[in-house]
């Protein structure tokens, strides 16, 4: 049988990036996508950080349909009935292409059209059902009645990666390693978004929330401004949801979040145009699958390349970088005329030299550190309460501000041994 | 807005056969809490009290995979819908 150079399972960002780089070297590539078009099964928060990948993408993202450049970063700690926020903006963020909000049904579809112009076969509406094996080597895929033989199969089929599972590369999926994200896309006029979020044309805001949004469970809320919509959503740990008593309906958390005073005015008059959900890898470095085997490479979310650092959430630039490095590895394997795991191991060693595995490794302890009530319950309640006390003037005289603040901080528990120890151990994260 | 109303805004192409299968023996005998009943973002799982069986409205599935992971007893057998079927996100 004739083998092509690579068959890519899944037309998301890692798969399409891999195909793009292979097409540049005139390699024969087929991308198989189960949705109506690439992007139609994808959900992001979300934003894409460009700085980490600017040296490797080449012209791939020239002309990309970005929504807005993020120039305003906000974090909010939500107490039960109060909140405190940080609002950051800076010239550096305005003058550079640091990060952009995107919508995947536009973005991935656009990239796939660029690929088709380059002569890549992107086949939509086909679900890959199985891998094809020759002994202990993967030699292609089966999609319904169709069989596609290839020197390398690229498993770019997302966080649930059935391909990595079938190849025996994936860890068992445990609730503690995943969170569920729910998102509403809400339509608002461009002018309203500019005014409400205090940004200029084509500029946007990224806003993360922790605390009451998840009722103290692992996770948080997010709001990203797009051109004429906002992406509003929540992320909650699946293990935390299963352990919550009394039980909480996940979809109801989303409604409670939307009903908050802090959110209401921002989306007032907007209309819901899409309701979506997806699971997210949350285990960081410790959740990564085996990255390659005989005739197979795993990329993007399928490999577990996502990093939640509490104040930032990253995934898509990991996907793009891993797809590009997968392509380089396939090119190397072709030169060596060897597609065994011995040659494809260069994929992992290359990833270790880049931000993909470096950042994930550096932050390998963060998920364990975040997995306690301090970040999702204690601090989001304590800080707004403290500010509330400082700002409130009642009938009683308040006394000296320094003494008052000290007493209140002591009373809140922020100065307890447990909290100071926590602050101290943070330096190890 | 109720969650079932939210789902009507999405674009779905519904296959004849469900991509979610529930093993009712495991579900009834082994699973006490039945996380699927509250964890699904589409609120698609319900308990039919007449025969004590969990039923799922697969047509509104957002394909997130939460139930597959939360069902630690392994009663839910979940695969992707066939090519071109299921939810088709227009924003994503």
Structure report:
The complex is a heterodimer of chains A (429) and B (92). In chain A, the strands form 4 sheets. In chain A, strands 1, 2, 7, 8, 9, 10, 16 and 17 form an 8-stranded mixed sheet that branches. The mean pLDDT of chain A is 94. In chain A, α1 runs parallel beside α3, α10 (316-336) packs antiparallel against α11 and α14 runs antiparallel to α15 (401-412). Chain A folds into 3 domains: 4-67 and 102-170 and 289-353, FAD/NAD(P)-binding domain (3-Layer(bba) Sandwich); 176-281, D-Amino Acid Oxidase, Chain A, domain 2; 369-428. Chain A has helices spanning 13-24, 91-95, 104-117, 162-166, 190-196, 238-243, 250-259, 261-267, 300-303, 316-336, 341-353, 355-362, 366-370, 373-391, 401-412, 417-425, and strands spanning 4-9, 29-32, 47-49, 69-78, 83-89, 99-101, 121-123, 130-134, 137-143, 146-155, 178-187, 203-211, 219-225, 229-237, 271-281, 292-293, 296-298, 307-308, 313-314. In chain A, β12 (203-211) and β13 form a beta hairpin. Chain A has 429 residues and is α/β, with parallel strands linked by helices. The mean pLDDT of chain B is 96. Helix content of chain B is 25%, strand content 20%. In chain B, strands 1-6 form a two-stranded antiparallel ribbon. The longest helix of chain B has 7 residues, at 3-9. Chain B has 92 residues and is of the alpha+beta class.
What is the count of distinct domains of chain A? 3
- Any idea what the shape of chain A is? elongated
For the terminal residues of chain A, how far apart are their CA atoms? 51 Å
Q: How large is the share of residues in beta strands of chain B?
A: 15-25%
Number of strands of chain A: 19
Low-confidence stretches of chain B: none
CATH topology of chain B: Alpha-Beta Plaits
Report the CATH architecture of chain B.
Answer: 2-Layer Sandwich
Find the CATH superfamily of the largest domain in chain A: FAD/NAD(P)-binding domain
């Amino acid at each position: 049988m004739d083998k092509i150079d690579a068959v890519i399972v899944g037309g998301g960002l890692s798969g399409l990036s891999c195909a793009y780089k292979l097409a540049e070297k005139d390699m024969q590539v087929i991308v198989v996508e189960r949705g109506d078009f690439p992007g139609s099964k994808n959900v992001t928060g979300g934003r894409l950080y460009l700085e980490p990948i600017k040296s490797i993408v080449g012209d791939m993202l020239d002309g990309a349909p970005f929504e807005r450049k993020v120039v305003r970063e906000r974090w909010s700690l939500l107490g039960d009935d109060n909140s405190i926020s940080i609002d950051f903006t800076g010239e550096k963020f305005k003058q550079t292409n640091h990060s952009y909000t995107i919508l995947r049904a536009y973005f991935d579809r656009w990239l796939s059209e660029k690929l088709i112009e380059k002569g890549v076969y992107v086949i939509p509406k086909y679900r890959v059902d199985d891998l094809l094996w020759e002994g202990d080597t993967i030699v292609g895929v089966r999609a319904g009645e169709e069989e596609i033989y290839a020197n390398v199969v690229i498993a770019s089929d997302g966080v649930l990666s059935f391909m990595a599972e079938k190849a025996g590369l994936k860890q068992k999926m445990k609730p503690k390693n995943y969170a569920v994200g729910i998102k509403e896309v809400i339509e608002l006029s461009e002018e309203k978004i500019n005014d409400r979020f205090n940004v200029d044309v084509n500029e946007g805001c990224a806003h993360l929330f922790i605390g009451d949004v998840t009722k103290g469970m692992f996770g948080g809320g997010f709001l990203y401004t797009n051109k004429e919509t906002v992406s509003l959503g929540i992320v909650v740990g699946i293990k935390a949801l299963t352990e919550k008593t009394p039980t909480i309906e996940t979809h109801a958390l989303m409604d409670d979040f939307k009903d908050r005073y802090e959110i209401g005015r921002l989306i007032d008059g907007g209309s819901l145009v899409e309701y979506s959900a997806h699971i997210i890898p949350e285990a960081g470095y410790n959740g990564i699958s085996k990255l390659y085997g005989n005739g197979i490479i795993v990329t993007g979310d399928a490999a577990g390349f996502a990093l939640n650092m509490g104040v930032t959430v990253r995934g898509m630039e990991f996907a793009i970088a891993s797809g590009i490095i997968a392509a380089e590895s396939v090119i190397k394997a072709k030169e060596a005329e060897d597609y065994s795991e011995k040659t494809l191991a260069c994929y992992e060693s290359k990833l270790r030299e880049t931000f993909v595995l470096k950042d994930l490794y550096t932050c390998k302890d963060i998920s364990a550190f975040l997995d306690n009530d301090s970040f999702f319950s204690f601090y989001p309640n304590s800080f707004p309460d403290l500010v509330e006390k400082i700002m409130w003037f009642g009938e009683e005289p308040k006394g000296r501000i320094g003494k008052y603040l000290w007493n209140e901080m002591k009373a809140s528990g922020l100065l307890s041994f447990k909290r100071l120890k926590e602050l101290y151990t943070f330096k190890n994260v | 807005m109720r969650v079932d109303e939210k789902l009507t805004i999405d674009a779905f192409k519904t296959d004849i056969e469900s991509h979610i299968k529930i093993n009712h023996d495991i579900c009834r005998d082994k699973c006490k809490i039945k996380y699927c009943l509250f964890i699904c973002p589409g609120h698609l799982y319900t308990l039919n009290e007449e025969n004590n069986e969990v039923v799922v409205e697969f047509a509104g599935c957002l394909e997130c995979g939460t139930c597959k992971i939360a069902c630690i007893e392994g009663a839910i057998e979940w695969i992707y819908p066939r090519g071109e079927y299921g939810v088709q996100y227009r924003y994503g």
